[in-house]
């Protein structure tokens, strides 16, 4: 293994003899894992910033395959950074195409459940909220994950993150379970086994199966032979573990055999957030995703995540065009893994970060209070007031008092009006 500049990464294994040693500006320092789509390496740049590099098993010499790959990865790059590992760029020239994404340190949900047991109580609520927030963000960018499963959820320090979205589709959306793996059978929706159109509802089904796995330690249609699982997915009701009633009801709806009967990810998120009464009014999508993101991460505002440095393109290589800047989720740090709880607990009414309405107003008030235009207007009208006072009284003292009062009145009235108008535009 090439030497790591940063702290050790649990589970990282040595590079194999024929493994590549670089990918663009990154040194490959070890293997994070391997799945049906290829091998994932840990990459580090000169500054010690880390990324996950997935070398994909795909032949892009066919122009159609190549253009689909480029298109899907470009769409994945547009996904908002809410509970997702951001896709940074992809390299499509050369013999081995690869996709570079944000490295999330932590166990996958699959490994966490295998090693530490099922997730319950608040941790389960946060997991459900975080993963469905990611799904809503993914779907709103026009991307279908197509491979959501416990291996593609990493329990990061700041909450759960969904990884690998869009890659299954980038590798070809005409294939089914009988050819290259495009999803793990136990999490695949019934329409995936037919020749039906695949869309966001297949991710909603996979989300529900993933949460049921987290809560009970087993997928709801079993995990034995491919055909037995496929038969249950197509014909049998799910076998679900005990879960809180709202979650149980949602999971059952999301596992409906007919994709048209499943709620959209955004609806699932609203219902999860509403159950504790903290989102009581319609919110704009962006605000809703923000609340989901904060709920999943249980923020402590003074510990933001480090910024991701945008990567320099490799000379001479064709890359999927980069977004101008990669906005990093300023989501704060919390204990390393979702805690495993044996007794269900209830969310405390004062849990931070979930009060969308109150939190939104104070954020807006804070930003309006520092608004340069508002301050300049108040200063200008304050000076006009002082000048008028001087003309009327010819004395400096009363003129200054009139100016100060005019400044304060203009500043406060503008602040209140701007905050109220901003809150209105945040709704519905
Ligand atoms: N962005 C990432 N951050 C951290 N670890 C990752 C990331 N992407 C992949 N991994 C690790 O690499 C492993 C292999 O990934 P992958 O090839 O997608 O297979 P699978 O999803 O079937 O596990 C994952 O299980 C995970 O441990
Ligand atoms: Mg994966």
TrEMBL record:
Protein name: Serine/threonine protein kinase
Record CDD domains: STKc_PknB_like
PROSITE patterns: PROTEIN_KINASE_DOM (PS50011), PROTEIN_KINASE_ST (PS00108)
Keywords: ATP-binding, Kinase, Membrane, Nucleotide-binding, Serine/threonine-protein kinase, Transferase, Transmembrane, Transmembrane helix
UniProt signal peptide: none
Ranges of residues in domain Protein kinase: 26-284
Keyword ATP-binding: yes
Keyword Amino-acid biosynthesis tagged: no
Xref: InterPro entries: Kinase-like_dom_sf, Prot_kinase_dom, Ser/Thr_kinase_AS
TM helices/strands, residue ranges: 399-422
Family matches, as PANTHER family: MITOGEN-ACTIVATED PROTEIN KINASE KINASE KINASE 20-RELATED, SERINE_THREONINE-PROTEIN KINASE YBDM-RELATED
Gene3D superfamilies noted in UniProt: Phosphorylase Kinase, domain 1, Transferase(Phosphotransferase) domain 1
Gene Ontology MF terms in the entry: ATP binding; protein serine/threonine kinase activity
Region: Disordered, residue numbers: 290-330
